[in-house]
Amino acid sequence: MNTHSGIIFDIQRYSIHDGPGIRTTVFLKGCPLQCLWCSNPESQSKNPEIMLDHSRCSQCGRCVEVCPHKATVRSDGEIKLLRELCQRCAECVSACPNEARQLVGKQAEVGEILKEVEKDRLFYNNSGGGVTLSGGEPMSQPDFIRALLKRCKDKGMHTVLDTSGYTQLENWDQVLEYLDMILFDLKQMERAKHKEYTGVSNELILASARKLASLGTPMVIRIPLIPGYTDSHKNMEECAHFAQEIGVNRIELLPFHRLCISKYSKLDKVWRCNGVSPPPKALLEKVRDNFNSQGLNCTF
Question: Prior bond to 136 cis, omega within 30?
């Protein structure tokens, strides 16, 4: 296995919500969860994907002409992408005169990413920031992120991992020595509902949280507040009790938003939270105050 390269889909500079200070966030592709409310649908598949902005497509047909795999066709007067045939060669991306197509995801070397990350060293030093690995699920590429985190620590950078916690417990042994902090998502405490909403059970996730906390890893529990799915009083109380049980004091609420809808359309995926609205500020304040009343430090 090549530990010196991995599949990423974005590098976001000047991030201020992914750990302390000003940070550069590296987004890795691939996630074992399929959360109904996922805000990064382009992160779910481990492979690069074509995103097609139908509003920019002029139906010129150049993509049809250049596709060597017959994955782009004209059907019923429209240009269509047959994703089951697409080999992600990106010939159609290069040929499109309107930039209606974009290849999301690429193989990247550790050195290449490090070079990009180091551009903002001054901001890290002045703000207490650093590098955050997010996704997708970064732990789906444990060998690669170990190599990347090690190089970051060799350069004296502060490192953070944003994770769902869904990984085999032994994988943590590969990366913990190179991590300064973990942002740990805790979604739904009821096992059956967790599987219904995310596609997987929460047993491995809770086991990961317990292991990380027992080893003294600095951790922030982040709870996506999704109306109708995770925001019940019962779930919030169980999240609070679990945090207290494992000795984690810091809680961060992540309010649901709808900013990702266009990405689902570009990937020909169905947005399954169409009827869900962002939680009102009053609810966020109520949940925050309830956590704080139990001795936890909760923000949103």
Answer: yes
* Tokens at 118, concatenated: 């180091």
76 band by pLDDT with thresholds 50, 70 and 90 = confident
Q: Please, what are the domains in the chain?
A: 5-46+105-299 (3.20.20.70), 49-102 (3.30.70.20)
Instruction: Return the DSSP state at 200.
Output: S
From the list 28, 36, 34, the residue with the least C-alpha distance to 11 is 28
Q: Report yes or no: 99 and 140 within 8 Å, Cβ to Cβ.
A: no
- Which H or E element spans position 14? strand 5-15
Q: Report yes or no on whether pTM surpasses 0.90.
A: yes
For residue 138, what are the CA distances in angstroms to 5, 63, 247?
Answer: 13, 33, 24
pLDDT band at 11 (very low <50, low <70, confident <90, very high): very high
Number of C-alpha atoms within 13 angstroms, CB side, residue 5?
7
Judged by DSSP in three states, 58 sits in coil
| CB distance 7 to 46 below 8 Å | yes
**Tell me, what's the pLDDT at 289?**
96
Q: What is the pLDDT of residues 78-132, one digit of tens each?
A: 999 999 999 999 999 999 999 999 999 999 999 999 999 999 888 888 899 999 9
Compute the radius of gyration of the chain from its Cα atoms. Answer: 20
Distance of CA 90 to the CA centre of its chain: 24
Determine the longest span between alpha carbons in the chain, in angstroms: 63
> Is residue 25 classed as helix, strand or coil in its secondary structure?
strand
Q: How far apart are CA 284 and CA 299, in angstroms?
A: 9
